[in-house]
Write a structure and sequence with these properties.
By secondary structure, the protein is of the alpha+beta class. The protein has one domain: Alpha-Beta Plaits (2-Layer Sandwich). The protein contains 3 helices and 4 strands.
């Protein structure tokens, strides 16, 4: 499975890009793949071929309305794990809670 973090943004459209970005997020939602939107991009989980095809589709969707598009993408490929979209965050949160409990127990 792969986690793909991506940000696909049109250039030269002014201060706000929320409308064109919303179109890409709509496409991501239609894909059926698990995803999370955050302030600087979107993370999608799926097979390598699925997430790469989705990235291409988002770029092409944005390029249909805008002559120039910027894309930043980061992949985390791991064959032996699923459900990492939330699992990675939950693992860190558990460790933070353990650290907080340890700090409270120290005299």
């Amino acid at each position: 499975m792969v986690l793909l973090e991506m940000s696909v943004t049109p250039l030269g459209v002014g201060q706000s890009v929320s409308e064109p970005v919303a179109k890409c997020v709509g496409l991501i939602a239609q894909s059926g793949l698990p995803y999370e939107l955050h302030a600087m991009g979107t993370i999608v989980e799926g097979e390598l071929s699925e997430v790469l095809a989705l990235l291409q589709a988002c770029i092409e969707l944005m390029a249909a309305d805008h002559p120039r598009v910027s894309c930043v993408a980061k992949l985390d490929y791991r064959r032996d794990a699923r459900g990492r979209l939330r699992g990675k965050v939950e693992s860190v949160e558990r460790r933070l809670q353990q650290a907080d409990r340890s700090a409270e127990a120290t005299p």
